[in-house]
Structures are given as structure tokens and as C-alpha cells.
Automatic annotation (TrEMBL):
Residues 380-404, 436-451 have a biased composition (Low complexity). This is Glycosyltransferase 87 family protein. It comes from Streptomyces hokutonensis. Its main location: membrane. It is a multi-pass membrane protein. Residues 369-404, 419-459 are annotated as: Disordered. The chain crosses the membrane at residues 12-31, 79-102, 114-132, 163-187, 193-212, 255-271, 283-314, 321-338, 344-364. Keywords: Cell membrane, Membrane, Transferase, Transmembrane, Transmembrane helix. It is found in: Cell membrane.
Length: 459
């Protein structure tokens, strides 16, 4: 399919795609009801205004409460002086800003050449990506953390390494998963950045210990080690390796630890090769993939950490592979095994997103692709040649109603034909109470779509 060559044609195509995506997102995916944001909001309000303890709060009608390190609650303290509606609006704005920053970094210095048409197509594709739409609907923080981490990657690759590590350190203090990026700095032998990241993480954690000493002691000695506070390991939304093992009935720590060690060995080898080749985009992408795999619980919305991987695939010329994998990540296919993940079909289907993540870890291209520029490109003053600009992250999403694979791939690669195209060149006392009963940790208004469940695990 060829993209329109006139402004009128492009506007009509954009309106058609935007309408299709809007109808899809309003009817097919179930609304998550800002559940995680209501956890943050209720926790902070109870702590600041009602004398409650951070880790004692639960959303009304559920057993779920705050699970992040104490510094996360401290950093969310301003939310305690907002109304819930204002907090939701602020979360949407922050997530949109974080997404814009992520796309800007991944697209590279030539981002303007894609034009309004190309970026509109990218936006339509991103609206279908299940981890991303769940992040917005939950009011989650993962996009903000991804932006902090990629910001450090940009600093390192452009010779502005003086402040590199600050973003990673803050992200690691807010949530444990990004701490693996400190390991990346060590593997890359960026000692100063690793020291900065560690110091920032420790300083933020120390600040939280001064502000909420009791909560800090409880978290680091008890809550951090209790995964049942987060949810069931075998729940279908848990797309980590631990989730795969739990759905097989294997819940022993030794087997999981062995698998994690093997994955970390693969990660270290592949990341080192990427760093030696100067490919910081791939190095950061591989680290995000690995963090999702080795975390005990990786809910579907945590998989926004896969976005840099699609940028790497597109840059390396594997647009069809990127489009196919991206389409799979838009389908919500794992929920077909919500009730029963047994059998071969359950093993393969219920863990689909894990297989995508693992496959990307093993086969994601690293190193400079001929005729392309890394999104984290170095200054012209470096000795490395300066190839052409990298493409945005999004590829085809043909599994959904909306843009055809050719159209969205064109938006991702910047190779659409025709003159005049922006893509033509290569390159109350209860603060969370509501007017209706709260669902039990709803990922939507229906309990079927929850990333967490109040249903006890089978005996």
C-alpha cells in the first residue's frame, strides 16, 4: 500500500486511522480504572493526612497496597495535596511527556524529518501497544522510569557523561527493576557513571529513611522479600520467567535462580558486544529486556521496557520482524489463557510476551547497521563515522483494525514513497472512595483483565 502524496490524502488517512484506533481502544481493551494511581494516591493521602503507615494502606475492597521502595512514596508526596481527578490529569500529562522524551531519544537527531504525518502514524501505532495503553490506563510510572534511564544513555553516547547515572539512580530508588542498568554501566566500564548512579540511589534511599524510618525498615527487611504483596506468581499477566515456571507448577527458588543466572550470563555477553561496538541503544534495550525477564513479577504493563528493542530492529532493517512482534504485543493474546494455562497450548500461548522478550534478548541485532545512525549517536567530534538517522520505534500492527502494516512500517522507517511526504527521506476520609464499589485490583472494570487478582492461588 502506497501512502498518500497530497496533504488532503494524508489528512484523510490520519483521520481514518485515528478514528479506527479510538474506536478500538474505547471498546476492545478494558479500562484499568487508574488502579495503580489510586494505590499511590490513597497511600500518600493516608500517610500525610490520616497518620497511616505507607505499607498498611489497601485500596478499599482489595488486599492490594503500596509495593515500591519508600523513596517512591516520598517522591509522590505532592500528590497528597491534589484531588484525585487532578492527580489523574497530572499522571496523564507526565506520561505523555515521558513518552515524547523516549521517542525523541530513540528517533535521534533527525527526528524532525519524519514530519507531522509520520509522527501521527507512529502515535496511532503506539496507542495499540498493550503495555503502553495499560500504563496510561493504570496510571503507572514505568514510562517515567524508562525516560530517566534512556536520558542517561543519551548523555553517555553524546559525550555529556558528567551527569550520567543520575537518572538510573533515581529510577532504581523508585523501583528496584532499573537497578540492573547500574550493572550495565559496570559491564561497560563506565565507572564514574556507575558510581554516580549508585550514590544517587543510596542518597535517595537514605533520604526516605530519614523521612519515614519505620516504613523503610519494614520494606527492606520484610516487604521487599514478600512477592505475595504484589500478586500471584502464576497469574497470566506475569510475563517474567518466574511467571512461566509458576504456571508450570514450579515455584522453587533454586530453579528460578538458576534460570536467572543463565539469562544474566547471556545479557552480560551481548551487552558487552554492543558497548564495544558503540551501540548504546542496543545495550540499553538488552538491559530492559533482561530486567523484565529476571524480575519475579513483570506485569504486562511493565513491558514498555521493550520499546527500545523495536527501535533497534527498525534501525537494523528488520522492519517486518519488528512489525510482526509489535503486532503480537498489541493483541492481548495472553488473556486467552486467563482461566486455564495448562497443556502445550497454554504453555506456549499464556507466555507469548515472555517468548517475545526472550527472543529479542537472544537475537536483537547489535552494532552499527550499514547506512544507519544509532539513535544515541555521538558528536561529530568523535572518530566514529556519522551514518544516517535512526527511525522511530514503532512498526506494523497489522493484527488490529487500523493502519495496514505497510502504512505503519512506513511511519517507522521513514521510507514512504511520493513527493512532499514527511517520511520521504530515508533515514471523604477515604481518599480513593468512589461512587461505585471498587473492583478487586481491577486491570479493568472486569476482573478478567486484572494484572493482579484477589482470587487465591489453587491449593
Amino acid at each position: 500500500m502506497r501512502t498518500p502524496t497530497t496533504d488532503r490524502g494524508r489528512i484523510l488517512l490520519v483521520l481514518t486511522l485515528a478514528t479506527t484506533v479510538t474506536v478500538f481502544t474505547a471498546t476492545v481493551p478494558l479500562l484499568r480504572d487508574w488502579f495503580d494511581l489510586r494505590v499511590y494516591y490513597g497511600t500518600v493521602h493516608t500517610w500525610l493526612h490520616h497518620g497511616g503507615r505507607i505499607y498498611d494502606y489497601h485500596v478499599p475492597g482489595t488486599t492490594y497496597g503500596f509495593t515500591y521502595p519508600p523513596f517512591a512514596a516520598v517522591s509522590m508526596a505532592p500528590m497528597g495535596y491534589l484531588g484525585l481527578g487532578t492527580a489523574i490529569a497530572a499522571a496523564l500529562i507526565l506520561n505523555l511527556a515521558a513518552l515524547a522524551a523516549v521517542l525523541r531519544i530513540l528517533a535521534g537527531p533527525g527526528w524532525r524529518r519524519y514530519g507531522w504525518f509520520g509522527w501521527t502514524l507512529v502515535a496511532c501505532g503506539l496507542a495499540l501497544f498493550e503495555p503502553l495503553r495499560d500504563t496510561f490506563s493504570f496510571g503507572q510510572v514505568n514510562l517515567l522510569l524508562l525516560a530517566l534511564v534512556l536520558g542517561d544513555g543519551w548523555l553517555l553516547s553524546t559525550g555529556r557523561g558528567r551527569w550520567a547515572g543520575v537518572g538510573i539512580g533515581l529510577a532504581a530508588a523508585i523501583k528496584l527493576t532499573p537497578a540492573l542498568f547500574i550493572g550495565l554501566l559496570l559491564v561497560a566500564r563506565r565507572w564514574k557513571a556507575a558510581v554516580v548512579a549508585t550514590a544517587v540511589a543510596l542518597a535517595a534511599t537514605g533520604l526516605a529513611a530519614l523521612v519515614v524510618p519505620g516504613a523503610s525498615k519494614f520494606y527492606w527487611t520484610q516487604a521487599m522479600w514478600d512477592t505475595t504483596r504484589v500478586g500471584r506468581l502464576d497469574y497470566v499477566s506475569n510475563q517474567s520467567l518466574q511467571g512461566v515456571l509458576a504456571r508450570l507448577g514450579e515455584t522453587g527458588r533454586p530453579l528460578w535462580a538458576t534460570v536467572v543466572l543463565l539469562v544474566l550470563c547471556v545479557w552480560a555477553v551481548r551487552v558487552r558486544r554492543a558497548v564495544v561496538a558503540g551501540d548504546w541503544t542496543a545495550a540499553f534495550a538488552l538491559t530492559g529486556l533482561t530486567a523484565c525477564l529476571i524480575s519475579p513479577i513483570t506485569w504486562v504493563h511493565h513491558l514498555v521496557w521493550l520499546l527500545p528493542s523495536f527501535a533497534v530492529l527498525v534501525r537494523a532493517g528488520h522492519r517486518r520482524i519488528a512489525g510482526a512482534l509489535y503486532a503480537v504485543m498489541c493483541t492481548s493474546v495472553v488473556w486467552l489463557w486467563f482461566d486455564d494455562a495448562s497443556g502445550i497450548d497454554g504453555f506456549l500461548g499464556s507466555n507469548t510476551y515472555t517468548w517475545v522478550t526472550l527472543g529479542l534478548l537472544l537475537w536483537l541485532p547489535t552494532g552499527q547497521a550499514p547506512g544507519s545512525r544509532r539513535p544515541f549517536s555521538r558528536n561529530a567530534s568523535t572518530t566514529a563515522p556519522a551514518p544516517s538517522t535512526a527511525a522511530p520505534t514503532t512498526a506494523a500492527v497489522s493484527a488490529h483494525p487500523g493502519p495496514s502494516s505497510a502504512v505503519v512500517t512506513a511511519a517507522a522507517t521513514g521510507t514512504a514513497a511520493g513527493p512532499g511526504l514527511g517520511l520521504a527521506r530515508n533515514a471523604s476520609s477515604e481518599p480513593t472512595g468512589s461512587t461505585r464499589p471498587a473492583a478487586a485490583k481491577p486491570q479493568s472494570s472486569s476482573s478478567r483483565a486484572s494484572s493482579y487478582t484477589v482470587k487465591p492461588p489453587p491449593a
